[in-house]
Amino acid sequence: MFSVAWGVFATAFGWIVATDFRGAARRFHELSHTAVPFGGGAPVLGVGFFRVLAGVFALIGPFVLVGGLLELWRGEAGPDGLPPLPVWAVVGQALVAGVVLWRMWRRSGPLRRAWDTGTGPRRAAALVLTASVVAFVAALGLGREAWTVASWLVGGLCGLTLILGGRTGPVAEGPPGR
C-alpha cells in the first residue's frame, strides 16, 4: 500500500513542480525556505534545483505506482506493518513536526497566508494539512501503517492544492501605483 501511495504522490508532485504548473515550483521553493527551522539568509538552492528534483520524482513515481498495484493485484502485499519506534524517535519527530508547523503558521508563514487570503477550500486544505502532520506523527508512533500512509497521502495532496492555488511573487501592499 505504501508503494501505491508513494507512487501517486510522487507522480503528481513531480509533474506539477517539474513543469512549474501555475508557478508551483516557485511556491514550493518559497515553502521549503520558510519551513526550514533556523534557516535564514539567502536560499542556497534555487527553483531550478527543485524542478530537476521533481523531474526525478515524475519519472520514478509511475514505476513505483505500477509496482505497488501489481503487488496488490498478485496478493504479494503482506501485512508487514511498521517496526515499533523507540520513544525518543517519536518525541524527536513530534518536536520537528511542531517546529515546522509553528514556522508554517506564524504570521509570515505560508499556511497563515493561505488562511488569511484564502477561501473555504484553501482554508480547509491548510487545516487538513496541519491535521495530517499531527496524525502522521501519531500513527507512526503507534505503528499504524495504514493510518500513516493515509495521513501522508492526504497531507501531500492538500499541500499540492495549496502550492497550486497560491499567488506567485510578492503580494502588493495597498492600491496599485503607490
Structure description:
The chain is mainly α and 178 residues long. Helix content is 72%, strand content 0%. The chain has seven helices and no strands. Helix 1 (2-18) runs antiparallel to helix 3 and helix 6 packs antiparallel against helix 7 (145-165). The longest helix is centred in the middle third of the chain and has 28 residues, at 47-74. The termini are far apart. The model is unreliable at 168-178 (pLDDT under 50).
How would you describe the shape? globular
Helix content: over 70%
Which blocks of ≥5 consecutive residues have pLDDT under 50?
A: 168-178
- Helix/sheet category: mainly alpha
Number of strands: 0
What can be said about the biggest beta sheet? none
Strand content: under 5%
How do the SSEs run, as a string of H and E?
Answer: HHHHHHH
